[in-house]
Known about the structure:
single chain; 372 residues; alpha/beta; Aspartate Aminotransferase, domain 1; Aspartate Aminotransferase, domain 2; 12 helices; 35% helix
Amino acid sequence: MESVTAPEPTGARVRLRPEIAALPPYRQGRPAPVDGFKLSSNENPFPPLPGVVDAVAATAREINRYPDATALVLRERLAERFDVTADEVLVGAGSVSLLAQFIAAATAQGEEVVYSWRSFEAYPGLATVAGATSVRVPNRPDHGHDLDAMAAAITDRTRVVIVCSPNNPTGMIVTAAEFDAFMTRVPGDVLVLLDEAYIEFVRDAASVDGRTLIGRHPNLVILRTFSKAYGLAGLRVGYAIGPVAVLDAARATAIPLGVTAASTAAALASLEPAAESELLARVETITQRRDALRDALVSQGWPVPKAHGNFVWLPTGETTAAVADRLFDAGLVTRAFPPEGIRISVGEPESVDTLLRILGELVPASQDTHPI
Ligand SMILES: *Cc1c(COP(=O)(O)O)cnc(C)c1O
């Protein structure tokens, strides 16, 4: 009888890219306790509009079919609104997917992606997965992007610079003047991604607005999403507007058919005039709630920077974990970034009451933070 070779002992390790194996697993906020509130993912607290739910439900009858690979109808609709051609719009399964596509399209092993820090927690992982090296430029003391330092950090290895306005998690905007000055310093062969996931919540006229920049810079791409203001986080749909050649390269890196018929139907339904005005009225409610929350925290003595997204930034420093635990015990799930601070989404009115009650008891006695 022939002897059968025993299989490799199960201890033999699959060879993985070490930098990938070392990546921290994605941390989603803890689920909210019963009667609690999830304020950890900057989600929209309003339930979906009935018209949007109906549009999504109607797609269920055709789920035996693949979706339209390029989401043409949605691209045409967005193109109309931004006064560009449909080829200048790229739709993806959330703008995080699009970020990954642009970084993959522009960077190779050892090349650099520059972004501010602290900023969106997805950026470091996306750069690493693409094989690129992250160059993190510390925020200014007022928690805004230091665009001068970011421009100065560009080397001949830099392929992508990400500007996030309003910045997640600190809430600060980049002004239009700052952005213009920055663009004059960025070499034309370096791709700039302007991440505007929260643009609909901005009420400051000085803010940069990607819409006004379309067509002005051959190296600029604007990223927006339906996840936040439009309340479609669960369906995964975002879009990019930029030069066709850059978008084509990003399209080539995508895993095909990531945007489903349900996602595009929901996005299209949200852009219908009646639905959109209702959605934007909700955004207005959230921005007013945000401003009231930030003002109340400042009068309690918290050095909260001006908030331009649907969240506030509490610079809790070394006490970050302790403060987040106290909030959790009161039923509020927030996003803690020890040892810097806590990002708190603007949610249901009841959550704001609890928040102010707990935080009122925890105001730091002495403030080592910078004036705001
Ligand atoms: C939420 C968010 C996004 C977009 O998320 P998607 O749900 O993937 O569209 C992009 N950038 C920032 C900074 C965000 O906070």
